[in-house]
Amino acid sequence: MTTKQYPIIYVRGYAMTRAEIAETTSTPYMGLECGSTKSRQAWNGAVRKVFFESPIVRLMKLGYKDIYRDGLQLETGQIAPESIIIHRYYDVADPDFGSGVVPTVEQAAQGLSDLILRVRDQVCSGGQMKPADFKVYLVAHSMGGLVCRCFLQNDRIGSKEARRLVDKVFTYATPHNGIEMAGKNVPGFFDLWDMDNFNRDRMREYLAIKDGKTAVNSLDNKFDPARFFCLVGTNSKDYDVARGVSRLLAGELSDGLVRISNAYVSEAPRAHVHRSHSGAYGIVNSEEGFQNLVRFLFGDMRVEGALWVDALPLPPIGLVRKLLGTRVGYYFEVTVATRGALDFDLTRRTIANNSAILRQRSDLFDEEGRLLKAARQPTLFSVFLDMSKRPQRSKEMMFSVQLSVSMLTYLGEESSVDQHYMPGEYLFRDTIVISAIPPDTPDESWRVGYVLADSGWSSAEDRIAEGMKDEQGKPYVAIPLENQKGFKATLRLYGTPWQ
Fold first, then answer.
1. Contacts of 273 by beta carbon, 8 Å cutoff, 6+ apart
2. Closest CA to 360 of 341, 340, 375
3. Beta bridge mates, 468
4. Residue 387: how many CB atoms within 10 A of its CB?
5. For residue 187, what is the DSSP state?
6. Nearest alpha carbon to residue 358 among 372, 370, 376
7. b/e per residue 420-446 (b: at least 16 CB within 10 A)
């Protein structure tokens, strides 16, 4: 890895009942040790076992170490910068280890602040690292992400010195905008098992968001959102907590507990993976989760993709209905994968996974079909890449973008009148394979090439993406997309160095 390695502090998620708290405190890594074994069909048709050892084992294979020695946790003395530390804030809630009283979010956040300062002193002892060079990564699951945000955003909690030491934050399935049950936010009076922690009024209290116009899922200018990554789960069916009641109340547009629309921080990069909140198909113990984690922590390139739509087909009956005020919508589906990624995608937003991007025609065009100046052009993805993962002797970094655009099925008695429209028909569908070659000298530029693989890889010549600047003067490379159905758009790729 080319990026500097700092200690990782893992903050686990919500434990509801006394039994769950006891189960949590009885494990050394509080869920970070959970792996998974799946069956996948190989290229030759045979079914094989695919193992994900667990996030902590994978991190250890990258050179990280825990801080357990001879059955004890090293709370004094020197530890390596490449250390994994578990924030064991639930220990106090277990009568075997503490008072038996469940800590508040504020108390857990205060403990996180104290832990960061202790880790700094341990890492910097003996002169192996200067205190001025010390940083820490926070990795959190579910409510653990809210503990991290409470520490970062609430000036009354912890110390300014500790907050300054946080370099990056990665959250798995955190309810950054609260939890919805049967379409309603958890009520503030519902303090059984501390469920009110997910009520938005209570969240404003411990996140210290005083302005009522500021969204609960905002970092409120207290931490750089570009260094805060949100991994969003989209699989509700495999979440079995409470015998399936949770996924029933949360709905299909969720990971079984947290709704997709509530699982991210505004303006922060995020990825969508088809994993449930926890369990055998959980988001933490997944290949997709780990690959996003290590690229965000240790990668060296961030690539954002946005689709700039110029024209979208509209069938004849749709044109009539548009003039009569009927709404027409479009789904944008996108999947991003890296070269050699046989068992994971970095992000996947599809109709089948209830996570496709939806736009109404009125979000993009006026009644005359002209593009709006303030059109809501869809942002497709934000992924992090690692140049060190390129194959030996290869100069280029490669990744693919599967992009599909389709129109929503008409509703109403006359929906079958239009003989030109087939439900489920794709207006555009292709796989764009992108290669990026870094410059040999500082005076040169990146060379970005692409092919439209589904349109004919063998016959297509490599095309060079043209360098452009957007409406705010921000540079990007442009990949034109067009077909005979009347679809016309540009895939804009914004690439920035990442540390």
1. 231, 232, 233, 234, 283, 286, 288, 289, 292, 345, 347, 348
2. 375
3. 476
4. 14
5. P
6. 376
7. ebeeeebbbbbbbbbbbbeeeeeeeee
Task: Read off the amino acid at residue 482.
Answer: E
The stretches of 208-337 forming alpha helices (DSSP H) are 245-250, 287-298, 316-323
Structure tokens at 83: 């250390």
Q: Which two tokens stand for residue 71?
A: 């059955």
pTM over cut 0.90: yes
Calpha distance 174→251 (Å, rounded) = 16
Tokens of 50: 């695919």
Kindly state the tokens that stand for 76. Answer: 């004094």
Q: Dihedral sign, CA of 320, 426, 403, 282?
A: positive
CA–CA distance from 124 to each of 133, 257, 476 (Å)?
A: 9, 40, 41
Q: What is the rounded CA–CA span in Å between residue 106 and residue 124?
A: 27
* Residue 163 CB coordination number (10 Å): 18
For every residue of 69-98, DSSP letters joined together read ETTEE--SS---SSEEEE--TTGGGSTTTS
Cβ–Cβ under 8 Å, residues 316 and 420: yes
pLDDT tens for the chain, 499 residues: list them: 456 789 999 999 988 788 889 989 999 999 999 999 888 777 788 888 889 999 999 999 999 999 999 999 999 999 999 999 999 999 999 999 989 999 999 999 999 999 999 999 999 998 889 999 999 999 999 999 999 999 999 999 999 999 999 999 999 999 999 999 888 888 765 555 678 899 999 999 999 999 989 999 999 999 999 999 999 999 999 888 766 677 878 888 999 999 999 999 999 999 999 999 998 889 999 999 999 999 999 999 999 999 999 998 876 655 555 554 556 789 999 999 998 766 789 999 999 999 999 998 889 998 788 899 999 999 999 999 998 888 877 788 899 999 999 987 555 445 444 555 556 678 999 999 999 888 878 777 888 999 998 876 544 456 888 889 999 999 999 999 999 888 999 999 999 999 8
CA-nearest of 482, 483, 479, 481 to 493 is 479
Rounded Cα gap, residues 435 and 398, in angstroms: 4
Rg from Cα positions in the chain:
24
Chain centroid, CA 231 distance in Å: 2
Tokens matching residue 201 = 């009024």
